[in-house]
Amino acid sequence: MAPAKTIVITGASDGIGAAAARRLHRDGHRVVVIGRSPQKTAAVAAELGADHYVADYSRLDDVRKLAADLTAAYPRIEVLANNAGGLFGDRTKTVDGFEKTFQINHLAPFLLTRQLMDTLVASKATVIQTSSAVARLSGKLVLDDLDHDRDFSAMRAYGTAKLENILFTKELHRRYHEQGVSAAAFHPGGVASNFGRESESFLKYFAGTRLARMFLASPDQGAGQLVWLATGTPGTDWVSGAYYEKGKPAKRNNPQALDAELARRLWERSEELLA
Known about the structure:
globular; single chain; alpha/beta; about 280 residues
């Protein structure tokens, strides 16, 4: 049996994050549950006997505190699963001044990963991003308009954020793979969950219904690739820097997702915004 890993999962109070936490816990790993809701996060952690932390990604100070707490508590983190995210409604700015979808889906996990980098490098860690096939359907990255001041729609903002997850994965691999860090992004498929409940999209009214459960994957099924990436061996079981759908590198992709120069520039711009 492979040695147990310390696995930090954000967005683990519900949906595929909670499902992945349960499966990884059953496999003997030390799971750290991160969520926004104090009650739901504590409930999942209590069920597993796991550590938990609460952080609201619409507040970057919460992310900085989370990073500091994790650094102090865990000298090794073998897996960081950046799973938290969401599809939201009208365009709103956070207290930090960024469009909410962009901050929660990209900028906050970028910040958490950067602040944990010393621990991740020392642990030769795997960093996983929960992306989406929506990246190729509605994603359009414009570096001088990351807040979508000129072209906002809920789905455009979400698709672009999921594209940013893929580009972040590509650049994280380029910068840190030689130091032992591996990275992958994946699309969990259509999942019947509470996803989209804060938006005015059809998902608000469909994803959690009985009809959705007939046609969409369960959260446990949606968590399958996250569990596979977290427990697998980079370079043997999967390729670092890649974006996966159905357990294989995606055959179709947004052309921007293949642009290494764009990935580099997004990383630099993200650092500038957080400086």
